[in-house]
């Protein structure tokens, strides 16, 4: 059953909607792919139980904040291909997107990121939206620049994990990895 608190939206090629329990199988497959998860969280593919918690967490975020991440469905294929939207990061909206590997390189990340900024600024009235990408995630950093976000700062990955409350894995796995922060203000968005 569709969560009625989460608004449905569409872009040219994508349907954005709340996650349903029936999405778990497809989401679990996507989040279990090492290449998809390489630059997200601790960089490790996740198991089904964690995928289920991720799905529920995304829906709960909408209930708590009135905005969040949508299930991203490829309209022509009627297939779940990832998630995208905004989440609250220390009280500030953060742009997030993750697409299945077979949908990289065809402009879908740019399409959904652009829509998420529109939603954040025009529908939610945010003054500023941030985004983070690992230094090595050149494709995602390119998307952020394409949608008008500007580079703000570079920080150690383990520092960012601590800000998120994640303990352990990042320190050992990436002791010298960096995260790049991008941002866009509503004034900058409107003047593009």
Radius of gyration: 16 Å
The CATH homologous superfamily is termed Gcn5-related N-acetyltransferase (GNAT)
Mean pLDDT: 91
| CA distance, first residue to last residue | 39 Å
Can you tell me about this structure?
The chain is an alpha+beta fold and 192 residues long. It has one domain (9-190): Aminopeptidase (3-Layer(aba) Sandwich), CATH 3.40.630. The chain contains eight helices and eight strands; from the N terminus they run ββαααβββαβαβααβα. It has helices at 24-31, 34-37, 48-65, 108-123, 138-146, 157-164, 169-173, 186-190, and strands at 9-10, 14-17, 69-74, 79-89, 92-99, 128-134, 150-156, 178-185. The chain has an eight-stranded mixed β-sheet, sandwiched between helices. Strand 4 (79-89) and strand 5 (92-99) form a beta hairpin. It is globular.
Present the secondary structure layout:
Layout: E1 9-10, E2 14-17, H1 24-31, H2 34-37, H3 48-65, E3 69-74, E4 79-89, E5 92-99, H4 108-123, E6 128-134, H5 138-146, E7 150-156, H6 157-164, H7 169-173, E8 178-185, H8 186-190
Parallel strand pairs: 5-6
Antiparallel strand pairs: 1-2, 2-3, 3-4, 4-5, 6-8, 7-8
């Amino acid at each position: 059953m569709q969560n009625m608190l989460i608004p449905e939206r569409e872009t040219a090629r994508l349907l954005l909607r709340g996650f349903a329990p029936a999405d778990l199988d497809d989401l679990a497959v996507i989040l279990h792919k090492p290449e998809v998860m390489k630059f997200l969280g601790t960089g490790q593919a996740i198991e089904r139980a964690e995928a289920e918690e991720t799905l529920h967490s995304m829906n709960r975020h909408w209930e708590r904040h009135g905005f969040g991440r949508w299930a991203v469905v490829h309209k022509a294929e009627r297939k779940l291909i990832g998630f995208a939207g905004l989440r609250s990061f220390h009280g500030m909206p953060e742009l997030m997107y993750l697409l299945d590997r077979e949908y990289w390189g065809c402009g879908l990340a740019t399409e959904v990121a652009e829509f998420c900024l529109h939603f954040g600024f025009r529908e939610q009235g945010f003054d500023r939206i941030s985004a983070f990408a690992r230094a090595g995630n050149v494709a995602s950093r390119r998307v952020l620049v394409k949608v008008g976000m500007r580079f703000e700062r570079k920080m150690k990955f383990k520092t960012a994990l601590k800000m998120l409350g994640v303990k352990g894995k990042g320190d050992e796995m990436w002791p010298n990895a960096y995260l790049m922060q991008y941002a866009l203000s509503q004034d900058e968005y409107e003047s593009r």
